[in-house]
Fold:
Amino acid sequence: MKARVYDLEVMLKSVMEKEAKTGQQTSILYIMDLDGLTFDTKLFTLVRGALASISNFMSEHYVELIHSFVLVNAPTFISAIW
Structure:
């Protein structure tokens, strides 16, 4: 979680610098590449635990930072657990 918060703070700093430079609101298009992800029972724990926590944290504290969150190369089984 600390690493993700650090990444978010770096993104926030970049967005704020861009907004100061342009005078316009800026946001992030967050892309997660799931290429190579294979089905494993541990995915349930990950999705319901760590990823859910990060997602909730981002939506509570960085709501205006993230414009869109896009999953690419998602295997078909991901819709059953996401």
